[in-house]
User: Which sequence fits this backbone?
């Protein structure tokens, strides 16, 4: 009976009670590889449900990367909410039968949040292709303008839904993520905001891992039924290959994908899945078919790059060690978790990985990274600090506009360089 309840997922819109009942039914039917929990509550007190799927659903396991999908951040953008329910249905019914899905779930811990803004969804009573008040949460706040921003002070009051997601990101070792929206057809990648340090003068805000972000966006768009065509939703707006840099599209302050990348050490892109924000329910089955392959192929990308542990001379994990690839430092350095683990998403190629325990000499290792997404495991490279036998102190990155400080530092250096050049010219003339 439980399995039949879990499998009975129609192509329609599921309101709060139905959504909760479905998720509880899935967990009851498949308790060995699912875990259902709420990460917090909305303004009106609705649970923010997350279903976790994997071989070890209740806790992080060393070496297994964490992945997440979040939908319905804007309550009136509804397609993502429903296709994530169908993704859950596909994963649980395929596990143990489909070898690819079985390997994917055995090697990845997948977190799925169908709705981040249940209050906004319930407030949108009549389906509509365009903007409605359901976009916002109950307090009238846009949740995708509500996170700390790395470029400027975001004065918006942090909402309960936003705080719940921030806590969630802090408590898990997320490596890769996507948030699902509507109103366009494109895969958008960080940065959404910018200054001169990241290329605002050229109309493109470039992240240190820009090549990886382009790959991630293309992975989704080229596995989607039509996104890769780049035709957009009208003749005025086109997206070559179905992707765009967020800032190049339009500037956004306080966005979730930038927050994930800067403070969560998690690569996130934004997926716009439908020209119509809240399309008729009879179109949902086609949306699922259009996105099904792309959703799976994107999850596989969590196994890009390199991963490993940093340990001391006794083999104990060292948390908060800085591990980054040379040439692509993050404004908030990427650090190991409590198990001393690191995960770096990198495209195939040769890299120098720099592991640093504060107060001790850095350790460099050159690695040749293959494309291991098909094998469901990033390249493994551990670091052992033989002279270290202490736990590194907890480190956190302040929630301040970090790129703003870089811009100031850059601006402060420029006059000095000009003065040096001028002095050299004067000396040459005098000679």
Assistant:
């Amino acid at each position: 009976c439980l399995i039949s309840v879990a499998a009975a997922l129609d192509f329609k819109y599921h309101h709060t009670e139905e959504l909760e009942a479905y998720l509880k039914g899935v967990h009851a039917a498949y308790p060995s590889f699912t875990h259902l929990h709420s990460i917090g509550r909305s303004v009106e007190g609705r649970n923010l449900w997350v279903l976790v799927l994997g071989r070890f659903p209740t806790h992080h396991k060393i070496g297994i990367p964490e992945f997440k999908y979040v939908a319905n951040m804007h309550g009136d953008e509804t397609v993502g909410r429903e296709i994530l329910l169908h993704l859950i249905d596909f994963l649980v019914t395929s596990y143990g039968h489909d070898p690819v899905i079985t390997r994917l779930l055995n090697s990845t811990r997948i977190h799925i949040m169908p709705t981040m803004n249940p209050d906004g969804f319930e407030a949108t009573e009549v389906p509509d292709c365009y903007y409605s008040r359901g976009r916002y949460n109950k307090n009238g706040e846009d949740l995708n303008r509500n996170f700390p921003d790395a470029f400027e002070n975001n004065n918006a009051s942090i909402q309960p839904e936003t705080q719940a997601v921030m806590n969630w990101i802090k408590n898990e070792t997320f490596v890769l993520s996507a948030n699902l929206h509507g109103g366009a057809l494109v895969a958008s990648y960080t940065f959404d905001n910018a200054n001169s340090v990241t290329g605002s003068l050229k109309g493109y805000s470039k992240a240190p891992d820009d090549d990886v972000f382009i790959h991630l966006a293309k992975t989704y768009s080229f596995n989607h039924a039509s996104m890769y065509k780049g035709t957009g939703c009208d003749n005025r707006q086109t997206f070559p290959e179905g992707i765009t840099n967020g800032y190049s599209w339009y500037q956004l302050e306080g966005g979730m994908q930038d927050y994930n990348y800067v403070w969560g050490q998690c690569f996130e892109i934004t997926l716009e899945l439908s020209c119509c924000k809240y399309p008729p329910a009879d179109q949902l089955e086609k949306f699922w078919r259009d996105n099904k392959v792309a959703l799976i192929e994107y999850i596989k990308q969590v196994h890009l790059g390199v991963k490993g542990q940093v340990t001391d001379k006794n083999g104990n994990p060292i948390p908060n060690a800085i591990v980054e690839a040379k040439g692509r430092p993050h404004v908030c350095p990427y650090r190991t978790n409590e198990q001393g683990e690191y995960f770096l998403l990198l495209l195939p190629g040769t890299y120098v990985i720099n592991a640093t325990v504060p107060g001790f000499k850095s350790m460099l290792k050159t690695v040749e990274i293959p494309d291991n997404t098909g094998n469901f495991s990033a390249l493994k490279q551990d670091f052992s600090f033989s002279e270290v036998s202490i736990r590194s102190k907890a480190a956190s990155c302040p929630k301040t506009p970090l790129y703003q400080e870089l811009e100031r530092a850059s601006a402060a250096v420029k006059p000095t360089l000009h003065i040096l050049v001028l002095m050299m010219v004067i000396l040459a003339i005098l000679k």
About this structure: Confidence is low (pLDDT under 50) at residues 1-6, 415-422. The radius of gyration is 23 Å. Residues 192 and 392 are 33 Å apart (CA to CA).
